[in-house]
């Protein structure tokens, strides 16, 4: 989903031959999507008791990387199984993040809730899909194996 930017340095030798070498673009190794999944906390701390506190310690952070507000109304966040969170009327402010928790809670500009009574994200591996209101995939984040969280 994310594209890499490369540049080339072209130099000529005394024999008239050109030498081409890749050069890393300073500070821009990766083009970021305007709205992206920045972190998934897929394994909440402690035992999986199903308590609301434990469920809300499992979450996904979505970031607006632009300098303008973005309307996310109708956008979805889902896993491989199809557990889906749909954003109601919602605008993500410029440069801001919103955390989508698995459990129950009161929605704010910074925190949203799936309102599930069991865990969504698989500890052994899963994929988070962020889709626009039209259904186009905007970003994905995949993890495998052990651990508790992944930065995307």
From TrEMBL:
Residues 26-145 form the LTD domain. SUPFAM superfamilies: Lamin A/C globular tail domain. PROSITE patterns: LTD. This is Lamin tail domain-containing protein. Keywords: Signal. The keyword Ligase does not apply. It comes from Terrabacter carboxydivorans. The lineage of its organism: Bacteria, Bacillati, Actinomycetota, Actinomycetes, Micrococcales. Residues 1-31 form the signal peptide. It holds the Pfam family LTD.
């Amino acid at each position: 989903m994310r594209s890499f930017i490369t540049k080339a340095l072209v130099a000529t030798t005394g024999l008239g031959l050109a030498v081409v070498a890749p050069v890393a673009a300073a500070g821009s190794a990766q083009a970021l999507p305007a709205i992206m999944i920045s972190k998934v906390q897929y394994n909440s701390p402690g035992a999986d008791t199903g308590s609301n506190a434990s469920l809300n310690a499992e979450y996904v952070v979505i970031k607006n990387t632009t300098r303008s507000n973005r309307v996310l109304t109708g956008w979805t966040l889902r896993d491989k199984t199809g557990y889906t969170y749909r954003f109601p009327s919602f605008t993500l402010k410029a440069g801001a993040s919103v955390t989508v928790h698995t459990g129950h809670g009161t929605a704010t500009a910074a925190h949203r809730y799936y309102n599930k009574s069991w865990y969504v994200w698989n500890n052994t591996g899963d994929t988070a899909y962020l889709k626009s209101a039209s259904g186009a995939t905007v970003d994905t984040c995949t993890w495998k194996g052990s651990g508790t969280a992944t930065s995307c």
